[in-house]
């Protein structure tokens, strides 16, 4: 049985070698389809991996606790001239003292403020923050320095890129004094331009970091205070309303991403115990990772479908060639049947020829697909040498990542295509009438 099988394989290979160009072109379709599956999935995995790394950098291990204005519970609350709500410094202490698995907790307070220098003004977001705020939000210093522990309580300020340009369009702001409200603050630093973050999935608000101004949290508390009054209306109908808020946000970073959900639940329990009104929101950016994972899955399915169509076209090409081969070899089939070959022998011979074609194309496609990394880097290098600005920045950071499942899937599909599209020509050959086949010219 085994000897007969190898004899059939040998006969099938010799039959294919008679028409080398035809066999090569037939296998080429499978080669392209197989390598396309691996290449596309590798590119998709590379893009997805890069996106997930960026999300991790944005803070997938963070739990963000925000102050939010509560719904008016009563007419008295609605008409109150000063509204007191939001996160407390006591909440920050309770979180630090009661949750053991956190790496750090960073409080901050922000409010809109007008900054002035002579006749130039800038409506900025004044952020009272700790020293860790720079690293937390991936800000970079363009000039001067960032806030340090020795600045706590002092009137120093770091300007964001756009804020600095509005106040100092042609000058170096470091060391200059500007008006923040009714007091002078000394500029000690300026941050680089930073791309605004987009609102994603309802979890993270959009934020333009280029219109900020940063002062120590202790300074904001001592110089500005928790209570901020606003003028409403004008003339005789002018009124003042105020908001009394201690902290705008507490960012809690945990040691392990698996602890994010549990930590968020503990924080919610703590806040619920000490807040009568729902004047806070707990946000888990880990949702972004889940969203990226869903996007990657959909992207991979799309790529596999596209590459699968390529394999399907290659399979149809092989079936077409095998049907033509059956017609050309009708007399040979008749001779074999006359010499005692059974229909299963004929089916086996033609199926083996088809599988050899698809397996050969599939294996070479896999080898070419596994070389996606070196080939991609070489092509990227060549294009960059010819035209340095031709490729977008994302391509320079992209690194293909081969997925084992794509290799197995593409090879499995190529073999499956060979069997499925080889059955019909093989059956047609096996069921030829031997006498008519012998008369065929």
From TrEMBL:
<keyword id="KW-0472">Membrane</keyword>
<feature type="transmembrane region" description="Helical">
    <location>
        <begin position="346"/>
        <end position="372"/>
    </location>
</feature>
<feature type="transmembrane region" description="Helical">
    <location>
        <begin position="23"/>
        <end position="42"/>
    </location>
</feature>
<dbReference type="GO" id="GO:0022857">
    <property type="term" value="F:transmembrane transporter activity"/>
</dbReference>
<protein>
    <submittedName>
        <fullName>Macrolide export ATP-binding/permease protein MacB</fullName>
        <ecNumber>3.6.3.-</ecNumber>
    </submittedName>
</protein>
<dbReference type="GO" id="GO:0005524">
    <property type="term" value="F:ATP binding"/>
</dbReference>
<feature type="domain" description="MacB-like periplasmic core">
    <location>
        <begin position="24"/>
        <end position="269"/>
    </location>
</feature>
<dbReference type="GO" id="GO:0005886">
    <property type="term" value="C:plasma membrane"/>
</dbReference>
<dbReference type="InterPro" id="IPR025857">
    <property type="entry name" value="MacB_PCD"/>
</dbReference>
<keyword id="KW-1133">Transmembrane helix</keyword>
<keyword id="KW-0378">Hydrolase</keyword>
<comment type="similarity">
    <text>Belongs to the ABC-4 integral membrane protein family.</text>
</comment>
<dbReference type="InterPro" id="IPR050250">
    <property type="entry name" value="Macrolide_Exporter_MacB"/>
</dbReference>
<keyword id="KW-0547">Nucleotide-binding</keyword>
<feature type="transmembrane region" description="Helical">
    <location>
        <begin position="299"/>
        <end position="326"/>
    </location>
</feature>
<dbReference type="InterPro" id="IPR003838">
    <property type="entry name" value="ABC3_permease_C"/>
</dbReference>
<keyword id="KW-0812">Transmembrane</keyword>
<dbReference type="GO" id="GO:0016787">
    <property type="term" value="F:hydrolase activity"/>
</dbReference>
<dbReference type="Pfam" id="PF12704">
    <property type="entry name" value="MacB_PCD"/>
</dbReference>
<feature type="transmembrane region" description="Helical">
    <location>
        <begin position="402"/>
        <end position="424"/>
    </location>
</feature>
<feature type="domain" description="ABC3 transporter permease C-terminal">
    <location>
        <begin position="305"/>
        <end position="433"/>
    </location>
</feature>
<dbReference type="Pfam" id="PF02687">
    <property type="entry name" value="FtsX"/>
</dbReference>
<keyword id="KW-1003">Cell membrane</keyword>
<keyword id="KW-0067">ATP-binding</keyword>
